[in-house]
Amino acid sequence: MEQTLILVKPDGVQRGLVGEIIGRFERRGLKLAGMKFIRMSHDLAARHYAIHQGKPFYEGLISYIVSGPVVAMVWEGKDAVAAARATMGATNPVAAAPGTIRGDFGVEIGRNLVHGSDSPENAVQEVNLFFGAAELVIWERANERWIRE
Ligand code: DAT
Ligand code: MG
Questions:
Q1: CATH code of residue 20
Q2: pLDDT digit string (tens) for 21-73?
Q3: Number of structural domains found in the chain
Q4: Beta strands of 65-149 (E only): which ranges?
């Protein structure tokens, strides 16, 4: 089953939006497979954002993501990556549609509240970077047939 790595970034935690953000993925119908509350190390941040190394915003991005605790989660389901990205909204909250997390709570690209994997291939890498196999839970959701055909 497709999985995606979602982070509630330090601004989401500091602003008391953890429950609000988790609730949106939960209500959407994605299924939670793993969750932890961590302070990312500089090393983890550098590995997570390796693709952005050298870009003008890289240093600011790293110092932001390690500036406070984050909630790291794995959500799963068919098309989990695309569904989660749609729920998050565009990278720049100013351009994000109202009704999305970034469109409802953000006004600044460097404070965009949430991370979500951008492809199923990258999602596999990101999930493995943050979670060991033993930290992911296989479980049966009682109302599964009312969410998935
Ligand atoms: P996303 O988080 O939507 O996947 P991304 O992977 O392109 O976006 O970039 C990672 C983060 O880096 C993004 O959430 C915010 C920051 N960022 C991206 N482009 C930026 C820019 N042009 N200026 C400042 N920060 C930027
Ligand atoms: Mg990205």
A1: 3.30.70.141
A2: 999 999 999 999 999 999 999 999 999 999 999 999 999 999 999 999 999 99
A3: 1
A4: 70-76, 114-116
